[in-house]
Specification:
Strand content: 15-25%
Number of domains: 3
Number of strands: 13
Oligomer: single chain
């Protein structure tokens, strides 16, 4: 029997999880549930909701600057179902809360990008082909289209902080929420303790004492009902006239309860640090103390670059053209910063640009 020298080529591939969250972790040889945060639960925290909404809305408001008319139209009208602002806001929210966001590029018969479709994280599975020649995205559309494989050239995969902890993890991103796992779990335990504290702290605030000795339940109920009727309805707020045999006392709720409640929330500083923004955008009191508003705005614009660059870079790679998101179109709504910059360039002892050019720039911007 002859031996075939041409062995069949084996194609190896591996599946990459679309999230760095693992449901279990191994500790001392035991598999125990891992502490994770899902996006919907995270949004119940008002500070996380605020920072997520703010970042996603501002990046979605940025105008795209490109010389490619196809990309410009695709960015402005990406979906057949929702407007461009809503589409990119959804994309950024998924990117922020999951570390990954997926948009399928649907093409026309000529192969040009025609429209985009957001795909939820739980409907995507990534396959890394042998020799890392390509990534395949297996999508379960959960409709009549069923399950389909999409090549990387037809998938916009936006990532935050790809981490090469293993050879496969470098192809997926990590959400800022992962750095807040311990803090949010602590808050959950604190909330349970708070409810228990409130349950025992909220007691009746009026106490009636009778020197008549031990009263039966029927007599107590009658006194309580008569007192409530006397001090409610039309009698509410009127002067109370007490029988000499009764004594009324007012009960104060322990003042420590308020102090306890003020310390159970996640620090706004920790959340701002995790999402890479200045804490003044979460704490209005600190923001009002800042005198240099322009500096705060500049710091925030720098922070937004962390979320804009993944979008720009992916659009450039998959659509083979330059793409730049103009952050000023999102944070300089009244054009005040633009006016100040033009004024500084056109005035002074050594102006950089002549007044005629400054005037033209203001007209082009729509200021005048």
């Amino acid at each position: 029997m002859g031996i075939n020298p041409f062995k069949q080529k084996q194609v190896r591939s591996q599946y990459i999880p679309t999230s760095n969250y693992l449901p279990f972790k191994v500790s001392n040889g035991f598999a125990i549930p891992n502490e994770t945060i899902d996006a919907e639960s995270a949004l119940t925290n008002s500070d996380i909701y605020s920072v997520t909404y703010r970042i996603a809305s501002d990046v979605a408001s940025c105008d795209l600057q490109t010389d490619n008319p196809v990309l410009k139209n695709l960015y402005k009208r990406p979906s057949r179902l929702i407007n461009g602002y809503g589409y990119w806001q959804t994309t950024l929210i998924n990117l922020i809360l999951n570390g990954n966001a997926f948009s399928v590029i649907h093409r026309d018969p000529k192969g040009n990008p025609a429209w985009l479709e957001n795909i939820p994280l739980n409907q995507v599975q990534i396959k890394l082909l042998d020799y890392s020649i390509d990534l395949l995205y297996i999508i379960n559309y959960q409709d009549e289209r069923g399950t389909q494989e999409v090549q990387s050239k037809d998938m916009l995969h936006f990532r935050l902080m790809p981490f090469a902890g293993s050879s496969a993890n470098q192809y997926t991103g990590i959400s800022p929420l992962q750095s807040l796992v311990q803090e949010i779990n602590i808050q959950n335990y604190s909330n349970k303790l708070t409810l228990g504290t409130l349950k025992h702290a909220i007691t009746p605030n009026i106490l009636l004492k009778s020197p008549a000795g031990v009263l039966s339940d029927e007599v107590k109920e009658k006194l309580r009902t008569e007192f409530e009727n006397f001090n409610s309805g039309d009698n509410s707020g009127r002067i109370a006239v007490m029988d000499q045999s009764l004594e009324m006392q007012s009960i104060q709720i322990n003042a420590n309860v308020a102090d306890f409640l003020s310390n159970v929330n996640i620090s706004q500083t920790q959340i701002a640090k995790a999402f890479n923004i200045d804490v003044t955008y979460l704490d209005s009191e600190k923001g009002s103390q800042q005198s240099n508003i322009e500096q705060i705005r500049s710091l925030y614009a720098d922070s937004l670059q962390s979320y804009m660059k993944p979008v720009e870079s992916e659009l450039e790679m998959k659509l083979n053209c330059d793409a730049h998101l103009d952050v000023n179109s999102a944070i300089d709504i009244d054009n005040q910063q633009f006016i100040d910059n033009i004024s500084k360039l056109a005035t002074g002892t050594t102006p950089v640009i002549p007044p005629e050019l400054a005037l033209q720039k203001l007209k082009d911007k729509g200021v005048i």
